[in-house]
Write a structure and sequence with these properties.
With 517 residues, the protein is of the alpha/beta class. The chain has 20 helices and 15 strands.
């Protein structure tokens, strides 16, 4: 039996090493980073190891050689010099009022001033920060290391509240600007976060930061690669497979489907989500570990606010400029969703410089789609899994009347303001419902000009459905026959249902359906 202790939720490198927790050695990459540059920015989704990276850098710059015994850094670093470190962690506040950011900056600055002295004439946060950097250098004789964890947390928390975002931006912009002003006093700086706010935002003055978020060289700096799993957890893979009653190959395939698939640039290896992966190894069970530790409520609000067509999400295309930068006034929800880890890079068109996005893995796709349902229908979060379960069972038993009546329930009590919004809403609800059904049975889904074509396949039945907006159910059925949608299934032994369905703008629901079999 493996004796590994998995560091679930442990973000402090010193305690992790002292208490004997399992650690995948990232120190060769850290050494390379430190020796080949000075100012860095890294964005990764939450729970991806950013705080542990910051903590590891902190231990290294404090000269704590003993913590690196047995790691690559032990043989790489020869000098082990101790530097003054200013570590700012913005992870701990809620940031729902302007004072919340002021309070956390005040607390950090006061602590640093106790160490390195204060100057009464430095009244603003940025002047105090610059003064501390200068005095720390003068007092210790070494240049300063600056580590900022979750630099963007205040901005993220204020998405949708433009006034609060503006206030946070006006505070952070000059504060981070000290990094550029005090260049001669700084040895190394790393800012980490989930997103990169651009244009008129906190980053506009920080053009000296080297953004390594999409650089292949540093892809393995956070997260776990396939190589790292096999180098560090080979025996545990066999134990996991045995506990699950599956073969080693089946277990590896399941792990990959559930937790792999994060691509932070084109032509890069996929990275596993470390939080979900380590939880799965610890419990020897598959679960939605990462998804369940954070709710993407603000992302859903963005999707709804901008009337986003959800079907596009699984094959969205965009360029690096859009992916890399979130303008706080942007109307495009995709960059925030990508940088938050709910979408990832699936392909790249080199000729046009376009990235194709999609869900990274099954955990994220199922979790996100399930999460959407209560926001687009009247079905509550508690009822949602049961409604989908009943729907699937009715589909599998050939009870088309029951599942179409259940489908009507998903549309009940919804309100719209304009016709286009109504059409998009009905397409979005159908997309969510049939995407959820698709996790249990085979679904092919297509939309065009207010029409939705659907093919549902179970072991015993095939359903061909045509949804029309403001037509008739008979016209929808006629379309199935005229376009010969059933032709590919003529030799199939399963029972075939052709269903024409009309959606009424007046009742804002499915009006009626006709079935042919």
């Amino acid at each position: 039996m493996s004796d590994k202790i998995y560091p679930i939720g442990i973000q402090n490198f010193e305690s992790l090493r002292q208490d004997g927790y399992f650690y995948i050695d990232k120190t060769a990459l850290i050494y390379q980073m430190v020796k080949t540059g000075r100012y860095y920015f890294l964005s990764r989704p939450r729970r991806f190891g950013k705080s542990l990276l910051i903590s590891t850098l902190g231990a290294y710059f404090q000269g704590k050689k003993e913590l690196f015994t047995g790691l690559a850094m032990e043989s790489l670093e020869k000098d082990w010099i101790k530097y003054p470190i200013l570590h700012l962690d913005l992870n701990i506040e809620k940031y729902d009022v302007p004072e919340s950011l002021d309070n956390i900056l005040e607390k950090s600055l006061t602590e640093w001033e106790k160490l390195y002295g204060a100057e009464p004439s430095e009244r603003s946060f940025s002047l105090r920060f610059a003064g501390i950097i200068q005095r720390a250098r003068e007092k210790t004789g070494q240049r300063v290391v600056i580590l900022v964890d979750e630099y963007d947390k205040p901005m993220l928390q204020a998405i949708g509240n433009e006034e609060l975002q503006r206030q946070f931006r006006n505070t952070l912009k000059p504060f981070y600007g000290a990094l550029k002003t005090m260049d001669g006093y700084i040895k190394f700086a790393l800012l980490t976060g989930v997103t990169k706010f651009g244009k008129v935002s906190v980053f506009s003055d920080l053009n000296n930061l080297d953004d390594i978020s999409m650089w292949n060289k540093y892809i393995e700096i956070c997260g776990v690669s396939e190589r790292e799993i096999h180098e560090n957890l080979e025996a545990e893979l066999h134990e996991f497979a045995e506990a699950r009653g599956v073969t080693y190959e089946e277990l590896c395939a399941e792990l990959k489907a559930c937790y792999d698939g994060y691509h932070f640039t084109h032509n890069s290896i996929g990275m596993y989500n470390p939080f979900s992966l380590l939880n799965a190894f610890k419990r020897k069970e598959f679960g939605s570990y990462w998804f369940e530790t954070g709710t993407p409520t603000y992302l859903v609000k963005l999707l709804k606010k901008h009337n986003y067509d959800l079907e596009r999400m699984a094959h969205e295309e965009t360029d690096a400029q859009v992916l890399n930068s979130i303008d706080s006034e942007s109307t495009n929800p995709i960059p925030v969703i990508y940088q938050s880890g709910y979408l990832t890079i699936k392909g790249y068109d080199e000729r046009f410089g376009m990235y194709r996005l999609g869900f990274p893995n099954r955990e994220v796709e199922e979790g996100f789609i399930r999460f959407l349902l209560p926001y687009y229908t009247k079905i509550s979060k508690v009822e949602s899994p049961f409604e989908i379960q009943k729907f699937v069972r009715e589909v599998e038993s050939g009870d088309y009347d029951s599942f179409l009546h259940r489908l009507q329930c998903f549309f009940a009590d919804t309100t719209y303001e304009v016709v286009r919004e109504q059409e998009l809403h009905y397409e979005n609800v159908l997309f969510i419902v049939f995407k959820l059904v698709g996790f249990y049975t085979q679904v092919e889904y297509k939309t065009s000009n207010g029409r939705v074509d659907l093919v549902l396949k179970t072991d015993k039945f095939i359903y061909i459905m045509e949804f029309k907006l403001e037509g008739t159910a008979e016209e929808a059925l006629q379309q199935i026959n005229d376009k010969q949608y059933a032709l590919p299934f003529e030799m199939d032994g399963r029972k075939l249902f052709k269903i024409g369905i009309n959606f009424s703008a007046k009742t804002r629901n499915i009006e009626r359906w006709v079935v042919e079999y």
